[in-house]
Amino acid sequence: MSEAVREAPKKERPKFTNIHVTELSNYRMPLAAIVSILHRISGVLMFVLLPFVLYLLQNSLRSEISFAYYEGFVTYPLVKLIILALVWGFFHHFCAGVRHLVMDLHIGLDKDSARKSSATVLVISLVLTALVALKLFGVF
To answer: What does the alpha-carbon distance between residue 26 and residue 31 come to, in Å, rounded to a whole number?
Structure first.
């Protein structure tokens, strides 16, 4: 080996550490990671709100008077927002689940296709949620 090769300054290798909670704002996640995290959040949201929905359904089916009571209960804005959160959770979880099923078939695994499919999941779930919100809040 020549003298110049032996004496070449060595670059320090980058040090990779786990991301701390305080560093999350500096870390830019890809869109596919955001969709994956939202898929998990929507699943938890549906799981947590399921008893609320089943309680409303059970009590609304008891009689016509209880149905009229809960029909009025659903008109409150806070309840509408809870219903809208559940609707978003369902639509997002469904669309992301279909995306994952397609990826299980080894379709769309490359970086560009994954980015496009994750953007499609976000757009479709938000558009469907917006349509339900317009209907829920009486626009049409």
So the answer is: 15
CA distance 95 to 85: 15
- pTM, 2 dp: 0.77
In tens, the pLDDT along 5-28 reads 566 667 777 776 777 778 777 778
The reply to whether 93 sits in an annotated binding site is: yes
Q: Which of 33, 133, 59, 62 is nearest to 91 (CA)?
A: 133
Q: Which DSSP letter does residue 14 get?
A: P
* pLDDT tens digits, one per residue of 48-65: 988 888 988 999 999 999
Q: Which CATH number fits domain 29-137: 1.20.1300.10, 1.20.1540.10, 3.40.250.10, 3.20.20.140?
A: 1.20.1300.10
CA angle 22, 19, 21 (to 5 degrees): 25
